[in-house]
Amino acid sequence: MSCLVDCKKTQTTFSDISVSEYLIECLRLIIFVPMNFPDAFKAGVLKRESMGGVLLYGPPGTGKTMVCRAMASQWGMRMIQIKPSDLLSAFVGQSERVAKSIFSLAHRIAPCIIFIDEIESLLHRRGQGDDRSHQRSLLNEFFQGMEGLQSSEKQGTSGVVVIGATNRPFDIDEALLRRFPARYMVGLPDVAEREKILGIHLRETKLHKEVDIKSIARQTKKYSGSDLKNLCVAAATSAVKGAAKDFQWERLTRVAASGDSSEREEVKITLDDTEITKEDFKKAMSEVPASATKGRHEEIYEWHRKHGNKGDSTQTEKGIQKFIGPLRAFARISKIRGVRLSFALTSRFPRDHPRK
């Protein structure tokens, strides 16, 4: 099955990605612990109810898919990766059979993650093309599969979790969100996380002594993890181009055509020894801008404020930075330095500074 991911071959680990420790701890608690220590969830409300699905949301390229691959690889789980387009079929009833077979397969190969990318296409708001009867039938079949998982979880026999990922959480029908009560934002990396991501991509690459990864991390604000990977690739490509030009293109063409092993070996050694320079990164930054737009990121954060998990202090801090300056001014004017920040933010400040 083409959507079945062999995570043992990919060998993705949490050390290969850079996401908040809070997110990893939450996923470990709601996925790893119940599957491996089900007895801890056989008393009280946990015996009667289960968590349900998990929704990961955030700007494109922030590592939502990589998080799931790392979970599957490190926690000994299999992974079925699909898109809503994989479920949709022009033939009546075919989509429902595909959805049913996916849940059936997941049960057989459990422990298993069913990962649905671009899930907003499946759970989109009413009025956005959800009027066709076969799409409603597909949704019903899909949710029946999820309810079957929850019933199995109560008996401690499931071993399957559904994780949805989206760059557009605001397109998801709010009435369908209840199926995904665990919602976590995978946001843009901060400067420390950007430095870590750059280090991961450049760990087997030769860098000139003038290259300062910390400086590059500071210059790449609003870059996603995917943007940083593309930046490193562009810089490395620039370095190889520079080395290749030293041989002159005519010579490289002649060596490629002749197959002379000694000349090929000389070219290979030289290119392998190429260092990425500061100028290569400067050129790469002009070619690879940040893909996240300000308006879209603000839209995602606004949805996060209303519907997402607020436990990650790093995401909360990013969201309230724009309020801190006016809040401090308000504190000085009103002489409320002794009043707790939370009181000022949730009561007086919104009252005196309404959103326009």
List keywords for this structure.
single chain; 356 residues; alpha/beta; Rossmann fold; Helicase, Ruva Protein, domain 3; six-stranded mixed beta sheet; ATPase_AAA_core; membrane
Describe this structure in words.
This protein is α/β, with parallel strands linked by helices and 356 residues long. It has 2 domains: 4-188 and 295-336, Rossmann fold (3-Layer(aba) Sandwich), CATH 3.40.50.300; 191-287, Helicase, Ruva Protein, domain 3, CATH 1.10.8. It has 16 helices and 6 strands. It has helices at residues 7-10, 21-36, 45-48, 64-74, 84-87, 94-108, 133-154, 191-201, 213-219, 225-247, 249-258, 261-272, 278-287, 294-307, 313-334, 341-352; strands at 4-5, 54-57, 78-82, 112-116, 160-166, 182-185. Strands 1-3-4-5-2-6 form a 6-stranded mixed beta sheet, with helices on both faces. Helix 6 packs parallel to helix 7 (133-154) and helix 8 packs across helix 10 (225-247). The radius of gyration is 25 Å and the shape is elongated. Residues 316-356 have low confidence and may be disordered.
